[in-house]
Amino acid sequence: MDSSIQWGKPQARPILMIPGPTELPWPVIQAMNQPPTIQYDLHFDVKVLEPITLALREVFQTPRGEVIVMPGSGRTALEAGAVSVIEPGDPVLVITAGVFGALMREIMTRVGAEVTEFSVEWGQPIDLVRLEREIERVRPRAVTLVHNETSTGTTYPAAAVARLAKDHGALFLLDTVSSLAGLDVRTDEWGVDLNMTGSQKCLAAPLGMSLVAVSPGAWEAMERRKHKAGSFVYDLLRWKEQWIPTSRGGQVPDGAPRRQPVSIPTHLTAALGEATRLIVEEGLPHRFRRHAVAGRAFRAGLDAMRIEMFPEASILSDTVSCFKAPAGLETAAIVRTMRDRYGILIGTGLDKIRALTLRVGHMGITASPLYVLPTLSALELTLRDLGYRAEAGAGVAAAQAIFSAQSA
Ligand SMILES: Cc1ncc(COP(=O)(O)O)c(C=O)c1O
Questions:
Q1: Tens-digit pLDDT profile for residues 294-352
Q2: Out of 101, 213, 314, 359, which residue is the most buried by the measure of CB atoms under 10 Å away?
Q3: Confidence of residue 195 (pLDDT cuts 50, 70, 90)
Q4: Share of the chain above pLDDT 70, in %
Q5: What is the residue-averaged pLDDT of the chain?
Q6: Domains, in order of start, for the chain
Q7: Are the C-beta atoms of 318 and 297 separated by less than 8 Å?
Q8: What is the spatial distance between Cα 176 and Cα 398, in angstroms, rounded to a whole number?
Q9: What is the pLDDT at residue 283?
Q10: pLDDT-based confidence at 1, cuts 50/70/90?
Q11: Whose CA is nearest to atom 8 of ligand 1?
């Protein structure tokens, strides 16, 4: 029986420093506190859905594209994207550098793609020369990449990979589940055809909405299909027809209510709308800088505690830190102790690095001294409880130095 004080207990819930779902801004929580409305009501359509769709185009940096918002999670967006543009037998090159690259490979296999996997060692950079040779050899219909591999805490060069895909006439499909609204994702400028994400990470909205930004090139690919997509609900072309006004290329007469290919959850949409409003109000450059500084501060804290990062230094993510547990300590015990004794939940690694690594998300509102400093402090206390010694307070001090240098 653990007789130590469980500081986290009276909180009733731990603070979420896992890599999503993440903590929510108060106005986002409040946006859900309302009676039900009818999802096909013109008021909801005109006053809620349309402004959110337009604001999300800013967040996705896609003035030329359309953002489709559907119930679901990141995986819903990935599957909707894949099933909509890929026909059975299409060659697809899937870059895998962790758990979520492998997820895309599974989805592509299920939609019948002829998958070629371009496997990257976990935590290591992509060899772009070798990638280009592989694209030349396979001549894929689409290339897929996970921008920010949440399982290893790495960010991959989406702009460079997009360029290779475009140079060879392939569509470029990008998973931005743990990067959009935290890292700079330039959908149109880079040439991303399908930019697929979920609501619960850097967007700082509740889990439950799935978002896909679709480029004009991706619509063309859908329109040129020989056979209809094998999904009724997730066929994005059906969404285009039922969702997008005629003035923007869809089939909904301007000013008329859109039809809903699947009923849209009104409470989650309201929360996503509030989250989007807050992002636009903050401004993307400020938001990206905030995530960059928070990521750097957290890593400086780890370094001062003599904790090593898992990935190679050149591709460290600013939204998710994946680091090695001190030798001899069990990752699950660290997570449990930190949650129960100190009230902060972090994540273990995933899959084959579960026992080796820990993961912390600094996303949305948690990319801030308000969350980063207590997390480092609780981690230090936890490690000390479990027998690991670092210089007292060194982690917090190092992170503070980064934060205060930014305010100078
Ligand atoms: C990079 C990445 N892709 C896909 C997913 C799957 O998203 P979801 O859990 O929202 O279905 C995740 C979830 O963590 C992720 O981090």
A1: 999 999 999 999 999 999 999 999 999 999 999 999 999 999 999 999 999 999 999 99
A2: 213
A3: very high
A4: 100
A5: 96
A6: 9-19+284-407 (3.90.1150.10), 26-281 (3.40.640.10)
A7: no
A8: 30
A9: 98
A10: low
A11: 74
Pick from 154, 91, 148: nearest CA to 121: 154
CA distances from 77 to 134, 214, 338, 393 (A): 26, 11, 33, 42
Q: Judge whether 201 and 363 are in contact, CB under 8 Å.
A: yes
Backbone angles phi, psi at 334, to 5 degrees: -65, -45
Partners of 173 in the beta sheet? 144, 194
Q: Residue 33 to residues 28, 37, 164, 265, 272: CA-CA distances in angstroms? A: 9, 12, 46, 14, 13
Q: Which tens digit of pLDDT belongs to each residue from 244-260?
A: 989 888 899 888 888 88
Amino acid at 375: T
Q: State whether the Cα torsion 134-85-69-277 is positive or negative.
A: positive
The first and second tokens of residue 165, run together, are: 């895909």
φ, ψ at 289 (rounded to 5°): -65, -40
Cα of 334 to ligand 1 centre, how many Å?
Answer: 23
Question: Directed axis angle between helix 284-304 and helix 369-385, to 10°?
Answer: 20
Alpha carbon nearest to ligand 1 atom 9, residue: 74
**pLDDT over 80 (residue 212):** yes
Q: Is 73 in the pocket of ligand 1 (CB under 6 A)?
A: yes
Coil/strand/helix, residue 345: strand
Residue type for 380, please? E
What amino acid is encoded at 127 in this protein?
D
Which CA distances in Å does 328 have to 159, 237, 383?
Answer: 40, 53, 11
Q: Which atom of ligand 1 is nearest to the CA of 200?
A: 10
Q: Is the CB of 61 under 6 A from ligand 1?
A: no
- Pair of tokens at residue 156: 């991959």
